[in-house]
């Protein structure tokens, strides 16, 4: 990976910088070493190492910028930057000049900004960069006479951490190296031995003070602190340690080598110190110890350090015991709360995921795995990073389609360092789903993500908005005036018709008209005080007493309004008003016309009744005298005279029948006709009617055949009206039949799908429909000679039946009268019904020709 990379090392020709330059070159980097003023040393370094050198002032931004541009042109963009350049201008602060301060700050700290600022843009564009800042332990611990140097090195550490956070998303790492004292040309630059002796004296005094301060500091520390030597024996402890081991003072605790515990726990405490010294790093463990008579959970830390004051250096460890009993209790409480929270989250339908500070997945609920169709075991064991998870989802086409996925991925991962407050957005997936996502930073670092499928919610919202818009448009275009008053009594909704009718509109909040005020306003519009009071009382009733009601009121201007009041489930009320002035006027006109027609109908009925009465007597007289003439009661007549007399009698009888028919029709139309329902034998009735038509058939030379069997059985109905139906049908058939033809009369039974029994009476002739029977029976109008057919239809309908007129198969006309037989439970019949012939079944129920049938 280092082949071809370009590295720039500031202060890279002497001391630590020179060694860094050499090591980078040996690792395969193309190194450029910077120096500030010693040309001879730089040329010597170049000759010995073959590393190119470049002189420029790192404290000057423009000089650095020009140098970086030259390096980029000659060697390529800088991939590795080592900020090593530094100087010292030692002096105690009360003697330090401004020039000494600024010289060190600009060279040791500002130079890092100058170089980093001129290379980092190129690194971000290429997605790679390594920056190493050489600081010092003095930046952490401080040093007498080096306030400027320590401040610069401490600032360098803060600068390193900040740039590291900014560059992480672009694969740019920034680290610092903090060496201790290193024997280089810079620190060996001593002018004379006197100054060295003076410095050593000052350092000795400082060490004395530091030792005293250390003892005072240890005494002030409320936690036990101790130091172990190479044999793990105590060499130093503070007062808190002495109290913990119940020693009078720290010196006695050290002399008696008292541990914080005894037995196995004491061995484990010493083993912790041994492991720390062997590994060379601090180590911690938790122990339950009895301190001040109370069992406490203590976190014990052992950290190694070296003593170089003797000729033979030794390794020591410093220990610290910190009481974490409260933390233990809090951890237990937190664990219980987390268990409770996890139990709740496990059953939520909302997908939840928690990512740690390293962007790795540390928790997810089952809904998260179901949503993204991922293996829960893989999520739990692999704990993928957020970026890796995005890659997996992209392969499954479970992420929004974006033109630049790398940029999208980088922006998503960058949220771990840039997100401060929770954010919410909608994620539209390729499969049509829409997810509501909430991202929130965790207090301990990392992110909490929740996903909720709102596809159906958005669909319902769109449907609701569409429905609301449709309803709004519908209300706006209704002719009726419609308004809704809410549970607070304020006008919430009104269509334009309502606003136009009552000159009021919906306002904002309390500015909308109140229901009571609106009803009081109507008082000036109503013409009837009582109607207004009733309307107001019904509308202003308490919600639990309101009932839907409607009515009609008259308002000023001659208008009539139909109103409706409908209580709503939310405690509101809907009012609608419809202007029916024209309808009311038409209704009144129709009512007056109906009354006029009723009076005319009664007058017509009275006239027909009077006419029937006045004509019946003379016609009866004419018929009687005619019968006396052709009966030769007062002398014989010749054949022609007899024929004339018979014609006169028949005509008189026909006129009487017409009058009877007219009277029946008038009574039916007036609703005065009623049925005298009883049980009777239909076969006898048909035979009697056929026999009574013989006189007419002889004059017409037409034969009437009865094909209804005498034992046809009984039915329930008005026998007289059934006889009239048959007489009218047979009479109409005879009238339309030519001489020498036949008229067939038959009857049969049948049940429909509802098991209702029907009786069908059929009259068939061989003539045409010259009497308008079909039109009279089907239309209910008197056409031609259709008065008899109209009466037959009316009587049939009174029985709940129908008449059908259709052409016969062999020519002529067939009329079928279909009437319910009315037969129910025999227990409902009169006692004499038992004397009627048995009801035929099977073949016996089918019509049979009469004995005189050809």
From TrEMBL:
The keyword DNA-binding does not apply. SUPFAM superfamilies: ATPase domain of HSP90 chaperone/DNA topoisomerase II/histidine kinase, Homodimeric domain of signal transducing histidine kinase, NAD(P)-binding Rossmann-fold domains, PYP-like sensor domain (PAS domain). Residues 610-823 form the Histidine kinase domain. Residues 820-854 are annotated as: Disordered. GO terms for biological process: monocarboxylic acid metabolic process. It comes from the Bacteria. It is an enzyme of class 2 (transferase). Keywords: Oxidoreductase. It catalyses: ATP + protein L-histidine = ADP + protein N-phospho-L-histidine. Belongs to the short-chain dehydrogenases/reductases (SDR) family. This is histidine kinase. It comes from Roseospira navarrensis. The lineage of its organism: Bacteria, Pseudomonadati, Pseudomonadota, Alphaproteobacteria, Rhodospirillales.
């Amino acid at each position: 990976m280092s082949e071809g990379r370009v590295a720039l090392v500031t202060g890279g020709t002497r001391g630590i910088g020179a060694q860094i330059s050499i090591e980078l070159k040996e690792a395969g980097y193309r190194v450029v070493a910077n120096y500030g003023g010693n040309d001879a040393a730089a040329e010597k370094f170049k000759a010995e190492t073959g590393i190119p050198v470049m002189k420029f002032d790192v404290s000057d931004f423009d000089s650095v910028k020009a140098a970086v541009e030259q390096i980029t042109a000659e060697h390529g963009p800088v991939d590795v930057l080592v900020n090593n350049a530094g100087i010292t201008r030692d002096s105690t602060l009360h003697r330090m000049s401004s020039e000494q301060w600024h010289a060190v700050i600009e060279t040791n700290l500002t130079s890092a900004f100058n170089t980093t600022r001129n290379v980092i843009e190129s690194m971000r564009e290429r997605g790679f960069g390594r920056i190493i800042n050489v600081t010092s332990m003095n930046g952490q611990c401080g040093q007498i006479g080096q306030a400027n140097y320590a401040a610069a090195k401490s600032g360098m550490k803060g600068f390193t951490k900040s740039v590291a956070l900014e560059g992480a998303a672009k694969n740019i790492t920034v680290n610092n190296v903090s060496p201790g004292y290193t024997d280089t040309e810079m620190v060996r630059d001593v002018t004379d031995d006197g100054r060295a002796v003076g410095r050593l004296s000052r350092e000795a005094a400082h060490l004395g003070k530091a030792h005293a301060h250390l003892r005072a500091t240890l005494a002030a520390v409320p936690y036990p602190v101790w130091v172990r030597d190479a044999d793990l024996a105590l060499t130093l402890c503070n007062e808190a340690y002495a109290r913990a081991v119940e020693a009078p003072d720290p010196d006695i605790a050290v002399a008696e080598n008292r541990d914080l515990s005894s037995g196995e726990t004491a061995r484990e405490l010493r083993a912790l110190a041994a492991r720390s010294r062997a590994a060379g790093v601090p180590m911690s463990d938790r122990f339950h110890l009895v301190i001040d008579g109370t069992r406490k959970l203590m976190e014990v830390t052992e950290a190694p350090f070296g003593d170089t004051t003797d000729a033979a250096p030794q390794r020591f460890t410093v220990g610290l015991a910190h009481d974490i009993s409260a933390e233990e209790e809090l951890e237990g409480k937190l664990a219980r709360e987390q268990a409770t929270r996890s139990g709740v989250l496990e059953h939520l339908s909302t997908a939840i995921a928690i990512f740690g500070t390293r962007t790795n997945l540390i928790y997810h609920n089952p809904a998260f795995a179901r949503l993204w169709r991922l293996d829960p075991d893989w999520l739990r064991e692999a704990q993928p990073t957020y970026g890796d998870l995005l890659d997996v989802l992209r392969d499954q086409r479970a992420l929004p389609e974006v033109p630049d996925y790398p940029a999208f991925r980088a922006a998503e991962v960058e949220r771990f360092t840039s997100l401060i407050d929770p954010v919410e957005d909608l994620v539209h997936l390729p499969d049509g789903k829409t997810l509501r996502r909430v991202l929130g930073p965790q207090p301990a670092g990392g992110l909490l993500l929740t996903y909720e499928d709102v596809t159906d919610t958005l669909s319902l919202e769109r449907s609701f908005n569409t429905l609301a818009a449709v309803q709004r448009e519908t209300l706006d275009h209704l002719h009726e005036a419609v308004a809704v008053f809410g549970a607070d009594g304020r006008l919430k909704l009104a269509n334009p018709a309502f606003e136009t009718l009552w000159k009021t509109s919906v306002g904002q909040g309390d500015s909308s008209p109140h229901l009571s005020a609106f009803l009081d306003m109507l008082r000036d519009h109503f013409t009837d005080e009582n109607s207004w009071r009733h309307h107001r009382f019904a509308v202003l009733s308490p919600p639990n007493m309101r009932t839907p009601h409607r009515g009609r009121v008259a308002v000023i201007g001659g208008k009539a309004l139909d109103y409706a009041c409908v209580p709503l489930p939310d405690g509101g009320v809907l009012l609608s008003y419809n202007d029916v002035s024209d309808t009311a006027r038409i209704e009144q006109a129709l009512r007056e016309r109906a009354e006029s027609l009723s009076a005319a109908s009664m007058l017509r009925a009275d006239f027909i009744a009077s006419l029937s009465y006045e004509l019946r007597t003379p016609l009866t007289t004419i018929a009687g005298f005619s019968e006396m003439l052709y009966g030769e009661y007062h002398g014989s007549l010749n054949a022609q005279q007899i024929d004339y007399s018979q014609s006169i009698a028949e005509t008189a009888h026909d006129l009487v029948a017409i009058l009877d028919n007219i009277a029946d029709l008038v009574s039916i139309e007036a609703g005065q006709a009623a049925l005298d329902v009883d049980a009777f034998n239909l076969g006898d009735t048909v035979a009697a009617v056929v026999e009574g038509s013989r006189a007419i058939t002889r004059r017409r030379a037409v034969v009437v055949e009865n094909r209804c069997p005498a034992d046809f059985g009984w039915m329930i109905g008005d026998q007289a009206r059934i006889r009239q139906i048959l007489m009218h049908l047979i009479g109409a058939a005879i009238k339309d039949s030519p001489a020498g033809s036949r008229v067939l009369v038959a009857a049969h039974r049948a049940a429909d799908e509802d098991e209702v029994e029907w009786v069908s009476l059929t009259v068939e002739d061989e003539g045409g429909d010259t009497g308008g029977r079909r039109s009279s029976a089907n239309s209910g109008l008197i056409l031609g000679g259709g008065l008899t057919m109209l009466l037959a239809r009316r009587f049939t309908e009174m029985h709940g039946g129908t008449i059908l007129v259709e052409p016969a198969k062999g020519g002529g006309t067939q009329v079928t009268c279909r009437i319910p037989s009315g037969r129910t439970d025999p227990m409902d019949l009169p006692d004499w019904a038992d004397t009627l012939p048995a009801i035929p079944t099977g073949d016996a129920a089918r019509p049979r020709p009469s004995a005189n049938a050809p």
